[in-house]
Amino acid sequence: GKETHLRVVLRVRPLTCTETRRGDQQVVQSLSDGTVHVTAARHDATFGFSAVFDAGASQEAVFEGSGMRQLVELAIDGFSCTVFAFGQTGSGKTYTLMGPLAQSETHPAAPGLLGLMQRSFACLLEQSRSRGSDLALSASYLEIYNEQVRDLLSPGPPCALPLRWSKTCSFYVENQLRVDFESLEAIADLLLQGSQRRRTSAHALNRHSSRSHALLTIHIRNRAVSTASPPQYVSPQLSACPSKQGTLCFVDLAGSERVKETGSSGELSVEANNINRSLLALGHCISLLAKPRGKRTHIPYRDSKLTRLLARSLGGSGITLMVACISPSSRCLSETLSTLHYASRARRVTTKP
């Protein structure tokens, strides 16, 4: 019931070969005390975060240093936990969460390159075995594309699902498919299956640009029987009641982008406008939530499908980790500063788990 701040960590990706050949300058410097310094013409600013991972940080270092392992343990204990990656298109969000884009069932990624998702799945199953917990695990996988919520696991072409609200569940997606799993291989297959159906396109800044926001949720139900009462007084109905239910939600946000720089037109331009509009709504909600509780006005979660689905994670009863991803290139300076200011505001947001 105590207020807790959103945990915000920063990851700085390396300069790409294209940026190096082009002669882009590195304008971002990671310091050792969880701060990052941006220096360029007319810009000299320092930002502090819970942790900063520079270009040399491994996927394992990001998993351990971000607090992801603790988030998995809290989800098993019955909390609603969320991790989301935010940043400019091409800044490394999907790589941080999932690892290399080229992986498939026949060509899996090298263990050292696996992202936060796969490492969390392994940690979840390992914790379940070590605790001797009788956990029922299931997964759902959705994308928000052009303000439509679509199921990435249901058979057939993705179709729009209605988004509802109730007093008990807050905002929820009606008729979404939940798939049970018991092994690391099974959940890894579900992740790949859904990711391959997600909308992506190529443009000037990113050959594999995500054109939708994706939300993969692991539902964790503890089936352990309560022994608080003598066995003869426990009815069959009560003995079947779950003692804890937690969730672990991974949100891969589509990257913010400037249409002029990406060279997008037609359908790509429409997608970019919808992406930017939903990210603007998210930023507006975060700005209002960052104010002291006594000074907050109405939080406009209903402004987009994305903010509705993240309402509980941002301002409700969940525990949230934000991974902000940036490019160190001088060419991306404007978007990098925008992401850093955005992430700094998010650090002031509090929830009551």
Automatic annotation (TrEMBL):
Locate the Kinesin motor domain: which residues? 5-349
- Name one cellular component (GO) term: microtubule
Q: Where in the cell is it found?
A: Cytoplasm, Cytoskeleton
Q: Where is the signal peptide?
A: none
Pfam families for the chain: Kinesin
UniProt KW ATP-binding keyword: yes
* InterPro entries per UniProt: Kinesin-like_fam, Kinesin_motor_CS, Kinesin_motor_dom, Kinesin_motor_dom_sf, P-loop_NTPase
Keyword Cytoplasm in record: yes
Which UniProt keyword terms apply here? ATP-binding, Cytoplasm, Cytoskeleton, Microtubule, Motor protein, Nucleotide-binding
SMART domains to which the protein is assigned, alphabetical: KISc
Q: Select a single GO molecular function from the record's annotations and give it.
A: microtubule motor activity
- Do you know which SUPFAM superfamilies this protein is assigned to? P-loop containing nucleoside triphosphate hydrolases
Chief location category: cytoplasm
- GO BP terms, alphabetized: microtubule-based movement; mitotic spindle organization; spindle elongation
**For ATP, which residues are the binding ones?**
G87, Q88, T89, G90, S91, G92, K93, T94
Q: Which PROSITE patterns match?
A: KINESIN_MOTOR_1, KINESIN_MOTOR_2
Q: Which family does it belong to?
A: Belongs to the TRAFAC class myosin-kinesin ATPase superfamily. Kinesin family.
User: Which named protein is this?
Assistant: Kinesin-like protein
Q: Which organism is it from?
A: Nyctiprogne leucopyga
